[in-house]
Specification:
This protein is of the alpha/beta class. It has one domain: 4-Layer Sandwich (Purple Acid Phosphatase, chain A, domain 2), CATH 3.60.21. It has 8 helices and 12 strands. The strands form 2 sheets. Strands 3-2-1-11-12-9 form a 6-stranded mixed beta sheet. The two termini are about 35 Å apart. Bound molecules: zinc ion. The site of zinc ion has 7 residues, from loops.
Length: about 250
Amino acid sequence: MRYLVLTDIHANLEALEACLADARARGYDRTLVLGDLVGYGADPNAVIERVSRLNPHVIVRGNHDKVACGLEAADGFNTVARSAAHWTLDILTDEHRQWLAALPRGPIQVDDLVEICHGSPFDEDAYIFDELDAARALKTSTRPLCLFGHTHYPAVFELAHDGLESVSTDAEESAVPLADGSKYLVNPGSVGQPRDGDPRAAYGIVDESARWVELFRVKYAVNEARTKIVRAGLPEVLAQRLTVGR
Ligand code: ZN
């Protein structure tokens, strides 16, 4: 089984299409989506359409999905995120709003190897940034590999018998082998709004028979996504940050 892993698409259709084209060329069987399909970007309806056509094997909701469909208030959001959430709530079709509202909460066990969540396996809205967060998450994860998103930073944490380690993901294309007896937390990075200083879209593929996770970066039409954001009247900073990946 090869799982395509997408997270934090954030209504960026150009980034999503680029990842899908890249993944198609590499080959995969099923799709896992870790939430935050909308919020920030200019194409929430088109992204929901495209993701639902992928017929994801398992999908969980993100914090932006909850706010964008009216399930939760934007209280915890900063001004820019809140204004994008209101814009999204306004422009979503009824059908798409209901589709978002029906997305399940993570974590969800996919099979014997993999589980997925948006933020963390103990709280869908919690962030995993450092080894302290990872240690807590690994205590509650129930599968050897827990895939997460939410931070928009690619990250790999490995809990082996000799302790917890943060594995570097700086390479152009990194394959993370999954050792027997270790537990892993892996964030492939954000499809539609990377924040690690690399503006390219990020996604992952889990290959169960090879027992590894591959992390990829893909160039996409950033300027097109930027133009749409500005034209939609969304905060301009959301367009600017796509260029720098911050
Ligand atoms: Zn997000």
